[in-house]
Amino acid sequence: MRARESASAEELAVWRALDRVQDPEILRPITELGMVTGVDVTSSGEASVSILLTIAGCPAARRIEADTLAAAESAPGIAAARVDVGVMTPEQRRAFTERVRGGAEARPRQFGPDSLTRVIAVTSGKGGVGKSSLTAGLAVALAAQGLSVGLVDADVFGFSIPGILGLSRDGRTEQPTRVDDMILPPVAFGVKVVSIGMFLGEADPRSTAVSWRGPMLHRTIEQFLRDVWFGDLDVLLLDLPPGTGDVAISVGQLLPQAEVLVVTTPQEAAADVAVRSALVARQTGQRVTGVIENMSGLRQPDGSVLELFGSGGGALVASRLSDEEHGDVPLLGSVPLSPGFREGGDAGVPAVLDRPQDPAAAEVLRIAAGIAGRGRGLAGRRLGVSPRG
Ligand SMILES: Nc1ncnc2c1ncn2[C@@H]1O[C@H](COP(=O)(O)OP(=O)(O)OP(=O)(O)O)[C@@H](O)[C@H]1O
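^ thats the input. predicted complex w/ adenosine-5'-triphosphate below
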């Protein structure tokens, strides 16, 4: 088997085709990760490709093997292809994790103060207002716009993200892959997802209640942020539990640079508790950057709108959080009630991808575009002015 440096023209064409094969968990080309160890092409155009996997037999491994074969077969001048799969030795695995981390020892802490990742924590006052559905929708929408996105489901008591993103089926939740001490999160619709629901072992998350106390919760969130390898993310979203509990405070301590989005319903009575959850975030030094109203009016077949939960709650929360000290906290959007949006979540296929015309999905896409366009504040951004000549 020949390395890239000594490849013939036909072999080089195969290497180039393999550059397009991504590791489905790390989301980087397998050639860049050193997983392709050699390519041979015979004079009759038969290609053999050798790849090394961290572990054999897992779904990611099967996909890499299939994608490698398809890529080799598609290369110009190739009549047939086969793939030889090997498993890395412990030594090779160490070199691999080093390469993935880019020499992590020397790198700043993931999501530490020097990190360029924008961290957005989504909170709500009451439960059941659609916070998880919106967080998942925003994450998928941002990934679809080409951003590199991670999502931490920190809603320990009501983790629902794996279900909404199709990572949990028939009571089995997809598990992160462990490569030595590196934990690689599963990827759903381009989003790297980690959830407390993935760390329950064999327990069926449908019938498993997590009843951990503060310190245990804090350690778990800390582990999510430290040991799970997200790679270089543009945006990390966190789905917090509703209310003002231990997790919100831990996230405030661990990620003081986080922006906070508050989800509320149009019901004015829900506003007080939504404002309180935002104030807890402020107390831990986080910035509240916007409010999203969910479950706004439901469009009727005759075109009228039924305001099931009243109206005005989002605007009320936004205005109560805006003041001279903290500036304007905008209402980023009002997501209507929509049966299609709920069905997408239940089926594990986000409506923002599957039915972007759905009124709720369309509004989530619009909010995501606004969030993507806003960046992380002015620091490091180019301003739209040019010097006068
Ligand atoms: N705009 C909407 N239209 C219709 N159904 C919605 C909408 N938003 C959310 N839902 C549905 O409402 C239910 C609750 O949503 P979700 O689980 O996202 O709420 P939550 O605020 O995260 O709840 P908790 O924090 O208590 O777990 C889900 O069944 C979801 O599909």
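The mean pLDDT is 85.
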